[in-house]
Every structure is written in C-alpha cells, then in structure tokens.
Amino acid sequence: MYGIIPVMNSQVKKNKVFIGLSGGVDSAVSAALLQKAGYDVTGVFIKVWQPDWIECNWKEERREAMRVAAHLGIPFITLDLEKEYKEGVIDYMLAEYKAGRTPNPDVMCNREVKFGAFWRWAKSQGADYIATGHYARIVNHSLFAGKDKNKDQSYFLWTLNQDDLAHILFPIGHLEKPEVRKLARKFKLPNADKKDSQGLCFMGKINIKDFLAHYLKAEPGNVLNEDGEIIGKHQGALFFTIGERHGFMITKKTPDDDRYYVIDKDMEQNTITVSDRKSERHNSMEKKVRLGKVNWVIGSVWENSEVKLQARSRYRQLLENIKIVSVNISEITAEFERYQDALTPGQSLVIYKGEECVGGGIIVE
Asked: Which of the residues are catalytic?
C-alpha cells in the first residue's frame, strides 16, 4: 500500500527522525506510527512568527505537543524559526498582495520552513529523516495524493523535489481521517479528540483584510463593470482576489442583477472590475494560463505529448485535463481542455498525472 512507512529491522541502527509536532492529532499519530515502526523519534515544535497585536494560541499548541511527546516517551525540542517564517512567508505574502497578486502562504511555509529550514536544522542534529502529519504519499521518491481525498495536501507540496522526498516521511498519507482518529484513541494520545486547526497561527481571530490593512496602505477606489462604468466603491484593490464576491459596494444596479464577483483589478488605477455572470463576454473564463517559478517534482514531463496531465488551481478543486503548450526557461504556458473560472495570479497551479503530483507553478496570467 502506498505511503506506509517501512518497519525498521531491529538488528540495524535505528534511523533518526525529527517529526514536527504541531499539537494536533495528525502529527501525534504520525509520531506514534514512526515509533511503532522502530525509528528513533524526536518531537519538534516549530515556533513561527506572529505579530504582537494578534492573540495567538501557540503556547497552548506547544503544551499539547509536549503532552504527546511525554505520553510516547520521546525527546521534545522547541525550534525557533520565527526569522525564517517572517522572511520566507509573511514578507513574501505582503509583497505579493502589494503587487496585486494573491499568494498562497501555505505553499511557501512548506518550502521555506517545514521542508527547508526545519530540514537543514534537523540534518545538522544528525537526523536521517524529517516527518510531518501531511496527508500525502511518497513512493520511490515521487509524490502522490493522500488516500483521503477530502484531506489530501499534495496541492501545497508541489515545490518539493526528489532530493527533498528522499529524507521526508508522511506516516499517515495512506490513511483516511477517521482511521487516524481511531489510531489516536488506540494509542491513548492525549489529543485524540482535539478538533482540527484552521488556517495559519498568526491570523488568530482576525481576517486577512484586517491583517493586510495593518501593514499595507490602501485607498478607497471605484468598482467598474465590464464596460468601464463606475458602479460602486471598494476600500482598496489590493484586498481583492479574482473570483471574490464580497467586500465591495455596488451602488448602481438593476432589480434583476445577480451577485457580482471580481474578474480583474488595476493596481495603478486602484480599481476592480466585476461581473454579474449574465454577460456572455466576461473575461474571467480562460483556457490558457502562464506559470512562473515552475518546479517538476520528478524531472520534466512537458516534452511528452502522450502523457495525460491534469491540474487544479485551487485546493480541493476537481482535477481538469491540461496540456503543456510551451516552455521558456522557468515559465510554461498550459492549456486546459475546458474553460476555467477565476485563474488568479499569485496562486499555485498544481499538475498531476493521475494521483501523482508531478509539479506546478505560480499563475502569472
């Protein structure tokens, strides 16, 4: 079965694994499975940056992680990666929003922190592997979707390569969430019934627009229809993403208007353009998409026109057939078989070959 961690031979030296313990049930069960398989396991709580003006429960999460480590009888370490998180995730996110793009901080957190800085530190401590509670599978140094389609996190892991996958373990990738909960109770883990966390820690109880407004200057602007007419107002173009339906005010509308959604924005003019979906000419439906910062997990597949590829531009979106039509250094142009709605610059487009995640890139246009 894909993704099952190999059981160590008791006659050979135990491989040393540092596992990221977040305080949640997924990483806790992962640690227990590694221990059962015979690995030398150390639990690591990764402390990331958070602003001092937002209440964050990282101390509570750390206590939960410590309780898990104590229950399993494994060493526990707190690793401070605030600097790496601030520079690699937060600063990147703010710069992207300022430029009018909508970034995906989870992808950057995986690349820069969990499988970047964490691995470099773990390797310096003598680790053979690092592990996390991600729902994804590694087979022969290739990346596959997790068995649980509702929890699959391969979308956020497209920046990894074969060198990365050689020292990463995903112990629960072959399991579905109910099975993970069942194992947590079987192992009598202290957080077996803890609810899943939502979103990034630094966000706390504040929404993304309030967070951005604290760091980026925004001015009110006009909402335009597809003919360029002013039909409303907004609080700042940088706050909006393509496809968004909320946060702006329509002041000029007719009784039979449907709900409007964003199809374009102009950062220089500080305007957003919206559609009511009744227009047959609205320009948010596209087939072609240009990607930058492209990464192939296992070599390049674009040259083989016989390879059937699929892709998604949003987490949990259904996979759609796609083909690579041109390549230019680290950029590619891909074409979907069907028209796509709300392909958003700054977001990740992740490419699959069946259940295998073969790579991806950042949507440029």
From this structure: 109, 201
Pick the CATH number of 285-363 from 2.40.30.170, 2.30.40.10, 2.40.30.10, 1.20.140.10: 2.40.30.10
Q: Look at residue 12 in the predicted model and tell me its pLDDT.
A: 46
Around Cβ 263, how many Cβ atoms within 10 Å? 23
Question: Other CB atoms closer than 10 Å to residue 291's CB: what's the count?
Answer: 24
Amino acid at site 363: I
Torsion of CA 275, 277, 282, 285, to 10 degrees: 120
List pLDDT tens digits, range 280-317. Answer: 444 556 789 999 999 999 877 766 667 889 999 999 89
CB under 8 A, 24+ apart: contacts of 190-198: 190/64, 190/67, 190/68, 190/71, 191/23, 191/24, 191/25, 191/28, 191/64, 191/67, 191/68, 192/25, 192/28, 193/25, 194/23, 194/24, 194/25, 194/64, 196/24, 196/25, 197/22, 197/23, 197/24, 197/61
Q: Which residue has the tokens 């401070």?
A: 80
The mean of the pLDDT values for the chain is 89
Domain ranges of the chain: 16-203, 217-275, 285-363
pLDDT band at 170 (very low <50, low <70, confident <90, very high): very high
Mean pLDDT of 169-194: 95
Q: Beta 40-47 vs 16-20: how paired, if at all?
A: parallel
How far apart (Å, rounded) are the C-alpha atoms in residues 266 and 142? 40
